Amino acid sequence: MKYSLKQISVFDAIASEQSVSAAARKLSMTQSAVSMSLSQLESLLGRPLFTRQGNRLVLSHWGHWLRPRARKLLQDAKQIELGLHDQHLLSGKLGLGVSQTVAEHIMPNLIASLDQHFPELRLSLTVENSDQVIQGLLSHDYDLGIIEGRCDDSRMNYLPWIEDRLVVVASPHHAYCSQAEVTPIHLQQAQWVMREHGAGTRRVFNAAIHGVIDKVNVWKEYSQTNVLKALVKRGGYLSALPWLDVEKEVTAGELVVLATPSLKLERRLGFVWRQDAPDNPLRDVVVNEAKRLVR
């Protein structure tokens, strides 16, 4: 081999940080050593791996081709190193991007179970909306994502996990609470507070109203579910939120689920990862343990 694992590691770090200086700090190397290592790798491969955009280094066409292969090579090298030192083969770090509902209601039990059964596994957890999770996977920021709703991106593998649903909620003092059924006309006339575009919750809601309601009066958009619930409790707004997020408030009588038979609000939570991602035993452990917990 003409190239070294060190050069591949430097390439991967620069791709992650989009900066030679940041990659040097990450690898505990000098900036000149990182620059030299990258230069040597590009010279050996005969291809430019990055282009400069302002202060950032972004992957070239060849860099995008190399990135998943470099990640696999580094992962395999890590497993060899752990095996030679008689360490648990299922040790290491996994980057996980999850949606808000998953983070608040599912991840605590999953993390506790993983800590018990796989103590050498370290999860790096980031909470974002579903579109941001997918973008993070494409940018190699995460190894695995858990999102709300479907994923139709051909660059992604998608594995359905949990059946879930949205519900339309109102304050107990809202005028619609006295109605046995809330019609599409009523829903169109209401003021709504909703998750932002890009959130899985919003995507499911938009699909449900398509062909049923011409236009929804979305008064405000927020990325925090707790803000939406607080606004709805004040009496003037409706919102469509995951049942998992409002179950406690509904049980306590602070929110009311409206009957909206015209809207089909079922959805799934599911796992996503890159199509070109290498086999990853840590990813498989997280997926299998998550599926075991909800059987």
From TrEMBL:
What this protein is called in its record is LysR substrate-binding domain-containing protein
Keywords recorded for this protein, A-Z: DNA-binding, Transcription, Transcription regulation
SUPFAM superfamilies xref list: Periplasmic binding protein-like II, Winged helix' DNA-binding domain
What family is reported? Belongs to the LysR transcriptional regulatory family.
Pfam families assigned: HTH_1, LysR_substrate
Gene3D superfamilies membership: Periplasmic binding protein-like II, Winged helix-like DNA-binding domain superfamily/Winged helix DNA-binding domain
Q: Does the keyword Transcription apply?
A: yes
Domain HTH lysR-type residue range list:
1-60
